[in-house]
Design brief:
By secondary structure, this protein is mainly alpha-helical. It has two domains: 8-130, 23S rRNA-intervening sequence (de novo design (two linked rop proteins)); 132-263, 23S rRNA-intervening sequence (de novo design (two linked rop proteins)). It is built from nine helices and no strands. It has helices spanning 15-30, 37-61, 66-92, 98-126, 140-145, 157-167, 176-191, 201-225, 235-261.
């Protein structure tokens, strides 16, 4: 049985997430000149790794299970290590300048150190608490009615995602576009899941939707940082994902609190 957090931290307040978002912008800037056939693959992989770092940090933070948080943070750590290696290769092949290399390497190492610290903290917490019991579903209908915006907000996500995907360049086909499409589908699919009578099933589905929604927000911010889209063009999708984040966080907190009162 998974161990459930007592409180959920806002992923946007996490220092390492914001540091990795800044690194992502720097990576996209550094790879602009890598247009030769030889350098294009390295540039593509560097961008994909940096996107994965940000999205997995956000998805790990934005869920109620310690084990899921640890799982995603370990992925971010491995991708940070991969990115550091690619930065070294790009410098050795003279694809990036000395100043860029030193800056990127410093930030990447800082992210690795911060993630290692968070992973150790997570491991220490999970080793000292008892596994949580599955959360029952019988209060779900009551909980949903407490929120005026309701989960119908998620119905706007597919159309807003499609608008953004049409703006993004073809070069992002297997980077931001692919990850954003997958994450947005995960949000809607998990929210629209028919709640069964199995214990904890609806909590797990909503928790997955919350993590995927955080990933969507981060990917949109990365697209803005890469200057593929403007903040104005992303206003609506950020409004929708922001509302989803508020609703799911409140709903999951309610279900969790309701369960804890019955322990």
């Amino acid at each position: 049985m998974s161990k459930v957090k007592k409180d959920l931290q806002n992923f946007k307040d996490l220092k390492v997430r914001n540091t990795s978002l800044a690194l992502n912008r720097d990576i996209y800037e550094a790879t602009k000149k890598m247009i030769s056939d030889e350098s294009r693959f390295i540039a593509h992989t560097m961008k994909k790794s940096s996107c994965s770092i940000v999205s997995n940090i956000a998805e790990g933070c934005a869920n109620f299970y310690y084990e899921r948080e640890l799982y995603h943070w370990k992925i971010s750590l491995s991708k940070a290590g991969e990115l550091l290696g690619l930065i070294n290769i790009a410098f050795q092949l003279r694809y990036i300048e000395v100043v860029q290399y030193e800056n990127l390497r410093l930030i990447c190492n800082n992210i690795i150190n911060e993630l290692n610290s968070l992973i150790r903290k997570n491991s220490a917490i999970t080793s000292n608490i008892k596994p949580s019991k599955p959360i029952k579903v019988f209060r779900f209908g009551v909980a949903v009615r407490l929120f005026p915006l309701h989960l119908d907000t998620a119905l706007f996500l597919p159309s807003e995602t499609e608008k953004l995907l049409n703006i993004l360049p073809k070069s992002e086909e297997f980077i931001i576009k692919d990850q954003l499409l997958r994450a947005s589908r995960s949000v809607t699919d998990n929210i629209q899941t028919k709640w069964s009578s199995c214990e904890g099933r609806e909590f797990q589905a909503l928790n997955t939707a919350l993590g995927s929604n955080a990933e969507c927000i981060s990917l949109v911010e990365m697209a803005i940082g890469a200057k593929y889209v403007t903040e104005k063009e992303c206003e609506r999708i950020l409004e929708v994902t922001g509302n989803i984040n508020l609703i799911l966080t409140a709903l999951l907190a309610y279900l969790h609190a309701d369960w804890r009162c019955k322990e």
